[in-house]
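Sat 14:20. Reprocessing the chain from the morning session after the first attempt stalled halfway. Input below, unchanged.
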Amino acid sequence: MDPIRNPYAPGAGQRPPELAGRDEQLGAFDVVLERIARGRPERSLVLTGLRGVGKTVLLNALRSAAVRRHWGTGKLEARPDQGLRRPLSSALHQAVRELGHPQSDDVDHVLGVIRAFAQRDAGPNAKLREQWNPGIDAPVVKGRADSGDIEIDLVELFTDLGGLAADVGKGVAVFIDEMQDLGPDDVSALCAACHEISQSGLPVIVVGAGLPHLPAVLSASKSYSERLFRYQRIDRLAREAADRALSAPAEDEDACYTKEALAAMYAATGGYPYFIQAYGKAVWDLAPRSPITGEDVAVAAPEAETELAVGFFGSRYERATPGEREYLRAMADAAVAIAEKGEDELDDIGSVPTADVATELGKKPQSLSPARDSLLKKGLIYSGERGRIAFTVPHFGRYLRDHA
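Finished this time. Tokens:
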């Protein structure tokens, strides 16, 4: 097969040639945009799922849908070592530019508020080089979104932004990736701002994406967050959608798969979109001709697994300290032990009791808290419920048993 014509795209956040299995989410978002455009109340949206299920790809697709409706949009990626003010200000600056509001004075006022919001972290006596701004030429508006209380400031900022969008009959959508990495104060402020905006009926929504424990992060911040957001769990693809993700791009290049090959691909990838792209690329490059057969999949599987071991699993494993790696391996061993006993404790996400991990290591659970907490902060594991933990990366336990 010609590698130049290889259609598959195994990259972080890179849109696959066929965005299969996400029609429901795209259709629901179109309804949200239309309802807000008509002045109807609507909740902000939160996407949750493991690594590799395509949350970032879907987030970008939703943003494209908003852009097609001429909304103002901005996107940021949350980081645990960075506050919300600066990245959000840059995102909102872009959103204001996209709105195309005809009144320059009104635009300059909102841009001045964004600039005041961004610079508040620097303090009143900060030197000029410390007074960061998101490339805004408009003068700072004093007394608006600059109190220093992030919750008050964000409510004021979103209110002014929503008013600007309402003037031109459009909306503003803010897209936040890795939302679980926001600090507690920033999460609280974001929830409060979304609550205020939903009550006032202004056309501003937040679309967040994050790991499966993101709803718990939001709920811990504001009790009403469960009613504030519409949660959508993004999971692996069903068999039909996975087959389409492979077959449609191949057909565009005048190639196809046998039924046996598609079955083998689903068995190998588990329906996870990133794995589908990685295996698809490897199989295409090594298959001698079309149609691609089950034997071709078997020959290419080691190549795909090696690529995943280095670029997908290995890069994450390397971020862990030796003590944290022991904890990760113990999680993998605990899951196997539960499965071999035929117990019902192994749920659909493969979480294991923290007590079982301690048993595998022969240590007291309390002594393992530092390693567990560090892995949680690094986003390698998450806790869906008290006393249980799971990998944020699908098939990570298998990788640990085979390679680490």
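The first helix runs from residue 23 to 37.
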